[in-house]
Amino acid sequence: MNGSITDVAGIRVGHHTDERRPTGCTVVLTEAGAVGGVDVRGSSPGTRETELLAPHNAIEQVHAVLLAGGSAFGLDAAGGVMRWLEEHRIGVQVGPVRVPIVPAAILFDLWFGDATIRPDAQAGYLACQAAGIDAPAQGSVGAGAGASIGKLFGIDRAMKGGIGTASVSARGITVGALVAVNALGDIVDPSSGRVIAGARSEDGQTLFGTTRAMLQGEVPTLLQPGTATTIGIVATDAVLTKAQAQKLAQMAHDGLARTINPAHTMGDGDALFMLGTGASGSECPVTMLGALAAEVTAAAVLNAVRHASALSGPGLPNLPAARDMRS
Length: 327
Known about the structure:
CATH superfamily: L-amino peptidase D-ALA esterase/amidase
Strand content: 25-35%
Oligomer: single chain
Number of helices: 5
Largest sheet: 9 strands, mixed
CATH topology: L-amino peptidase D-ALA esterase/amidase
Order of helices and strands: EEEEHEEEHEEEEEEHEHEEH
CATH architecture: 4-Layer Sandwich
């Protein structure tokens, strides 16, 4: 499945990649406002402004969603997104000011290089400046720059993750996803059931098969919680309520479960946001939208790892990408 989340009317995407070490951030702008929802399934989340997305709370729309590396430090990048939106007079009118609503989620990528370098407010601002309606770059860019996968048997046997996108259209409605894949688990192609990236054998030459190994009684490395996380944004141009957006965020997680094994672990902070721009002016049954959301989420995960580039260099581990491994 190809396409991009920018196929959804009312969505723009921008990356900022820090050239000093593999990290970065990615912003999805919804300047006209979008109904938002979120569902957090991982046990080590790092998020901002998620509670206001609950259907019973007052704020109805968001103006951007940020995905960032840098662990909890990367949440600072949302301040730069707010500054950019405020300069463009975008936000909820509260008294004399407009307050931009910018939920965010982060992933852990501090394994590599100087860990004091992480996305900050300037990085978020630059991501907004770079935003456009063209299909965003995929792989080792933006929030996926320092992403890694297959870490349950140690970071030295892991592989390179990344960020990916996909979209689908049906009956005049478009649904798209953008996912930064930094999972503890392996990546599985659901069409074949084959592991395409993940933990490697001890010699590093072949894929190990994390779940198969655990079924045979092998105990994974006890990594500290919070050292992984897959985060993403699903969007549609259908008209949604906040309750529907929350339900669709839940259903979109099925796409993670199909492609990441195991998913939603104690070390992952897996979180998916749902945005409804309403630009089509049409409603669509939630069950249908949820099925499409899961499909594009799964496709975005696969695109993320298939577009990723290997990581190597002075002071860095050697993490091959999916395209580097022999089948």
